[in-house]
Records
---
Amino acid sequence: MTVLQSKNIKTGNWLANLMAYTEDEYLQISEIQHFAYCPRQWAIAYMEQQWQENVRTIEGKALHEKAHDDTLKEKRKDTIIVRGMPVASRELGICGICDIVEFIANKRGVNIPAYEGTYQVVPVEYKRGKPKVGEEDILQLTVQAICLEEMLVTEIPYGYLYYGEIRRRTKVEFGEEFRQHIRDMLQQMREYYRRQHTPIVKKRKGCANCSVKDLCISKLNKQKSVAQYITRRIKE
Ligand code: SF4
């Protein structure tokens, strides 16, 4: 089974034509938010493929399922809403699923098959909780926009993050700073994959709610005891 298949990503025919990266080299969009939050969490969850479900991830999944259910497409006035849309970027070598993509009637937009007129493309990502201090959600939405821009040959200046706790959308503008940050992170992630290296990082406030906390600590303790053993043997 290829990595892409094991990632259980819905693919369209167009994805088979993406050859700039091989299937095994494609990363998942969801990896971005974990890497931005903590590179060690990303490495444990994705590179080592270990994952612990805690209340936070279960709640997050429930909210995502809500975004992904019902019919895949619906039209409300001047907006077509598409749920669970598979996207990919050949340039970045990344693929995944957008919670919701809104196509809003706009003279300067793009054509959508089976619909008349042109539409502005606006990605919307659902999140549990409230807006975060960190940029991980913004970066995840930005990479979705980059994929959509490449697929639909259009420019996407903004999108929205919907937060379950405050039940409101927050507008996100896709600046060059975020786009470059994504390119840098993808390069770092590929380098960690190449070396199969799980980075060691300093503890942070968010460690208490981290979904791989127990794995992270037990691995650190093992590394410490190996280091202590080697130091002891050198001294002997
Ligand atoms: S417990 Fe803290 S350091 Fe360890 S993976 Fe989670 S966020 Fe990173």
Note: The first strand starts at residue 27 and ends at 28.
---
Amino acid sequence: MSASTYAQQHRDRFVEELKTLLRIPSVSTLPQHQDDVRRAAEWLLAHLRDLGMTAELIPLEGGHPIVYAQSLHLAGGPTVLFYGHYDVQPVDPVSEWTSPPFEPTLRGDDLYGRGASDDKGQVFGVIKALESFLRDEGRLPLNVKVLIEGEEEIGSPGISRWIERHARKVACDFAWVSDGQLYAKGLPCLVTGLRGLLYTEVEVRGPSHDLHSGQHGGAAPNPVNAVAAIIAGLKDRRGRVTIPRFYSAVREPSGEEKASWERLPFREEDYLRELGIPVSPGEQGYSILERRWARPTLDAHGIAGGWTGAGSKTVIPAKVVAKVSMRLVPDQRAKTILRAFEKKVSKLASPGVEVEVRELAGGDPVLISPTAAPVQAAMRVVREVWGADPVFVREGGSIPIVAKFDRVLKVPTVLFGFGLPDDNLHAPNEKFHLPNFHKGIETVIRWMERVGTK
Ligand SMILES: [Zn+2]
């Protein structure tokens, strides 16, 4: 037989096992699900051991454990590191789900359930590819390390630090991450860039206690006004961030890359309609895809403080906090930008207030060369399995771990997701298109054969 034939013959069982994993409500952000998160980790651990891999749970202080497995039997052979996550997003509003989020339900070819696509279905697909080799041929075509974390949906705080300290344990030649989508149904894509994220909290303090605006308005500093002025001053009317040297490290995408984006089935009119906006207010001189993928930006997410309840209260609050983040692109560095941001914010502070910036999360952007050998191999295999040439795209969002693979392990990552753009990630009625599950498994099998020793 072959690994592919094995996978074909065990399709139904694979889906049943995935359902078992989906029934575990491993919501990482909610303390009441802590035991469930652990249960999902233990279930995967037992599953990987059952396949004959050496596996362990790696505890993270104050966090959810990493599931780590390996099979290193080819001395001198190449080593791949597979990454995924077993934690899921909360399910609210639960009343909008057609079937219960943790009771996986098949409707047509789609399996509904929280985590079906993000990321349990995809990471389990990788595991089933490994099983197909191990059960059919008794060995894998290359050395394999598997890293499945339980904190991706809360920003991967634990694993990012862990990687820094355990780079040798997870040393590899290249990495593979399946935690994403095709560009469109029938159009697979390989991701060649991710933006970084610098997330901050800006606290503005005025008087030592709340004041009455009738008695003190005009004489006392107002932190709400002050924070609004700070946010307003961080971007100009043309959509440019005003922080000095903010753009100095930004690398322009190549002409070739830009031309390939222009060939994508993306219409700006459709995008504006989908968002329900008349125009895009972003940086002038750049297409919408460039603004979302290759340009850095800055957004405020909320301001807490003062009076926001019903009716009026004439308060000048003592303190206000705003959440402000920046999406970063190569070769910007979160650390450098944080310092420049702090300086700019204190310059924008009006007289009489004190300002403090706290960093809540920071991750660097990453670029992956489309000509790297494992990416090229993926391109060929995706074409064979999906019947279409994959397009090379970037993503506006961040997967912090991929930046670590780039900066700490110094290896390229193949980013191939086999969900669909309408899988309802993080939303009610998340689903996974099962034909994609099986094609995903086949893709991983053929890729391993191609980059391995066979
Ligand atoms: Zn995910």
Note: The chain has 14 helices and 18 strands.
